[in-house]
Amino acid sequence: MSERKRRAGADAAAGGSTSKKPRGASAAASYAQSLRSKLRPDASILASLRALASAASKSKPAAASSAGAKALSEDDPTSASSNYIVVADQDTTSVTSRINRLVLSVARSILAGRGFSFAVPSRASSNQVYLPDLDRIVLLRRESARPFANVATARKATVTARVLSLVHAVLRRGIHVTKRDLFYTDVKLFGDQSQSDAILDDVSCMLGCTRSSLHVVASEKGVVVGRLIFADDGDVIDCTRMGVGGKAIPPNIDRVSGIESDALFILLVEKDAAFMRLAEDRFYNRFPCIILTAKGQPDVATRLFLRRLKVELKLPVLALVDSDPYGLKILSVYMCGSKNMSYDSANLTTPDIKWLGVRPSDLDKYRVPEQCRLPMTDHDIKVGKEMLEEDFVKQNEGWVKELETMLRTKQKAEIQALSSFGFQYLTEVYLPLKLQQEDWI
Amino acid sequence: MSERKRRAGADAAAGGSTSKKPRGASAAASYAQSLRSKLRPDASILASLRALASAASKSKPAAASSAGAKALSEDDPTSASSNYIVVADQDTTSVTSRINRLVLSVARSILAGRGFSFAVPSRASSNQVYLPDLDRIVLLRRESARPFANVATARKATVTARVLSLVHAVLRRGIHVTKRDLFYTDVKLFGDQSQSDAILDDVSCMLGCTRSSLHVVASEKGVVVGRLIFADDGDVIDCTRMGVGGKAIPPNIDRVSGIESDALFILLVEKDAAFMRLAEDRFYNRFPCIILTAKGQPDVATRLFLRRLKVELKLPVLALVDSDPYGLKILSVYMCGSKNMSYDSANLTTPDIKWLGVRPSDLDKYRVPEQCRLPMTDHDIKVGKEMLEEDFVKQNEGWVKELETMLRTKQKAEIQALSSFGFQYLTEVYLPLKLQQEDWI
After folding, report:
1. Do A420 and A22 form a contact (C-beta atoms < 8 A)?
2. For binding Mg(2+), which residues are annotated in this chain's numbering (chains A, B) (predicted)?
């Protein structure tokens, strides 16, 4: 980072108090001003962040990697002793040999006169449960046979065999493809993409490998900036030198290596507008952090990337989301996984994310003007009530309280609502004050 | 680029003929194989690309930058002699002084007893026309008064004054904000975001400045890789070293500088799946090019970025889109602009993009299997017929023919349909052959 930029950052922070305030909300603005005066010097805030980071690095590794992935024996993923299915990241050699063994066992079954059949784990929603011990949604172990010599399953057995052979070909060439690519290799057989997608998930469960181990990747949406260096397909990327646009998070996590960082925390941001503000203000230079966003609903690539960062760097993760039921839902996808990817929850989820803001209680605490809050719709309230029933919310008393506050006041607010105190209020006052007060739950 | 990667690229190209072919479409596959044998050595293809690039660099500068932006006198943008409105990129000092002059003239009008009023260009759709000379959609010059002392316009005049003051504040701080940020600074006045957005477009026309000159930016979606070096907010980015993920295109084009490239062409890709294939195969090492995508409908940031590349590097632009009416529509947005941003078409559009593929005639030429083509829906056909009536399509005889072919066969196909010949068919056969045959229109 150049000295010029450092100074620009410091000036912005110091000169902030002379910034223009909207006239419409002058009482709130003067309160915002008073909050600014509460800010202690950065050195003091940094000290508390260092304590947080060091506590996170000493804590036990993420539950998922210890209890989940390691419960599987490397040799036979389908005979794990646990009663739920967890898939794990595997290298190309391992996946290829698993496919070979699977196909050999089918061949032996045919030769022995027992016919051509696959044993496929059931991914029905009745089979998806939340495990409080692991703090995520997992898939219970229950397999069904998929024989070729049965009218009901002949087609599915054929498609399964075809997908296995395609995955094998992709791995052999050492490339990555999308689900759409896979579908188009045999449209006649697959019919429509939902069928090849579903079988691909089956194959992932059968082999005990993550979808990214199969080299079938999702499209990327996420971006990252901040105190992070990593290699994307061998190219070393310094995320403090990625300008305002940031580095696109790579679709294929297995090509990411050499992760290094001197950050004290990871700041997970829901929306790209807030990300842009943080990137332009080079927030990570004032408070060493890694800033990432999936621009709304988290995609698989961003979730995998966040998890890798968390596991390798052992940094605390602080989340900045909208104060509405969807902000919380996004948090839950990062933390506990989505239901239809439950078999892969160990690799996709990042436990122990702290909810930094914007929290329903912040609206009053930071006196967000009434006109910047929005009334919750009936649908919002319904979703909010459903969230209250979710096990992952119930586990955290603070979250329950916040959600109850939201439902009582029937108000929601976006991160952007903080702009009502000035465009840089987010980076100059709100976040520093939150960090200073260790105000996360 | 490391020697290892160069070699990997060469190996992939050489070893391609042994790749696994789907069994389902064996006749088509063997034809695909025969196409591969038609490929001349890369050196010969590169020679024709060099000729293309050198022709492009000698051609006159893009129509927009000569006829459009320069028609405006720097001193008073609203008194340009032409009868249509064109906004231009302006630096912060120029925009600030334009705002100052505008506000001073309003103040003088008040002091002279003529009251408080703005002269605002009409952005009604009846005012948006396609100019064949310029090959883009422009806004005719027709202004209406927006007096404060009139019940019908008092509110709008107030909002206009407020937006002008907010833009002034943003420019003074040297930062960038989103439309959403702008809205949230005064929710009480703006009511809903569509109102502040509309007035922002008015202000852009009134000042004769692009929206990005006002430092109000759109969110970014696009990514870029390949033979390009540029600085994003002072950070130098080498796009050959951005792995598979690529570099996110920055939201604020005015922070982009130092554009350098040894590419022979720019490859504009509609979808991110194709982008990923090209990035992973490091296509730009075999054929020096810059590859970019907006992942579907082009956003403002990507359009601005493409235009900057085209104007500064004077490279030919080749487009790879789906063979359906929307692929063509996307091309039209890049080339001629969208109707609701017509006043800014000079800065957002990139004229002279060549349609490389996937074109309706390619489906038979490359024998894309029937099952990988999709029947056009009634809506597709309606959109296709509308496109035939568009002036920008009519200008290009080749495009009319292709569109007629599409409507006659009633078939469409995605770029991904080429995967039916093998995952790397796109990068190893289809595109090299297209380039070799100079098969663009």
Report:
1. yes
2. 270, 322
Q: Tell me how far CA of residue B244 lies from CA of A42, B235, B247, B424, in angstroms.
A: 37, 20, 9, 15
CB B11 within 8 A of CB B5: no
- What's the CA angle centered on A84, arms A80 and A86, to 5 degrees? 75
pLDDT for the residue B59: 67
Instruction: Label the pairing between strands B289-293 and B265-269.
Output: parallel
Coil, helix or strand at residue A130? strand
Residue located via tokens 């509308």: B386
Domains, chain A, ordered by start: 27-59+220-436 (3.40.1360.10), 74-217 (1.10.10.10)
**Considering only alpha carbons, which residue of chain B is nearest residue A168?**
B20
Q: Model confidence at A347, in pLDDT bands (50, 70, 90)? A: confident
Report, as an integer, the average pLDDT of A190-212.
89
- Which chain A residue's Cα is nearest to B170? A423
Chain B positions in Cβ-Cβ contact with residue A188 (cut-off 8 Å): 24-25, 369, 371
- Is any Cβ of chain B less than 8 angstroms from the Cβ of A186? yes
The distance of A423 to chain B (nearest Cα, Å) reads: 7
Tell whether residue B414 is among the known ligand binding residues: no
Nearest in space to A346 (alpha carbons), one of A93, A55, A77, A84:
A84
**Is A253 a residue whose pLDDT tops 90?**
no
Interface test with A, best of B96, B419, B425 (most A CBs within 10 A): B419
Q: Is the pLDDT of residue B307 over 90?
A: yes
Chain B from 259 to 278: CB within 8 A of any A CB: 272-273, 276-277
Residues A258, B247: contact at Cβ < 8 Å? no
Mapping DSSP to helix (H, G, I), strand (E, B) and coil, where does residue B175 land?
Answer: coil
Tell me the chain B residues in contact with residue A170 when contact means C-beta distances shorter than 8 Å.
423
pLDDT > 50? residue B435: yes
> For chain A, what percent of residues have pLDDT higher than 90?
44
* Catalytic (active site) residue A366: no
CB contact under 8 A, B272 and A219: yes
Q: Which residue in B329, B351, B239, B349 sits closest to B291, CA to CA?
A: B239
| Measured distance CA(B215)–CA(B91) in Å, rounded | 10
If you average pLDDT over every residue of chain A, what do you get? 83
Q: Which helix (H) or strand (E) holds B409?
A: helix B397-409
Question: What pLDDT, on a 0 to 100 scale, did the predictor assign at position A9?
Answer: 42
Considering only alpha carbons, which residue of chain A is nearest residue B301? A245
pLDDT at B397: 92
Interface of A with B in 377-416 (CB under 8 A): 414, 416
Cβ B232–A244 below 8 Å, yes or no?
Answer: yes
Q: Flag if A231 and B243 touch (Cβ within 8 Å).
A: yes
Greatest pairwise CA separation for chain B in angstroms: 84
Are B244 and A255 inside 8 Å of each other by CB? yes
Q: How far apart are CA B180 and CA B123, in angstroms?
A: 21
Euclidean distance between CA atoms A411 and A195, whole angstroms: 41
Residues of chain A neighbouring B416 (CB-CB closer than 8 A): 178, 180-181, 183-184
Going by pLDDT thresholds of 50, 70 and 90, the confidence category of residue A69 is very low
* ipTM exceeding the 0.85 mark: no
Tokens of B217: 């930016």
| Tens digit of each residue's pLDDT (9 = 90 or more) over B317-336 | 999 999 999 999 899 889 88
A110 vs A76, residue with greater confidence:
A110
Q: Which of A24-28, B375-379, B397-401 has the lowest mean pLDDT?
A: A24-28
Neighbours of A228 (CB within 10 A): 26
Angle at B175 between CA B173 and CA B176, to 5 degrees: 140
Interchain proximity A369–B187, CB inside 8 Å: yes
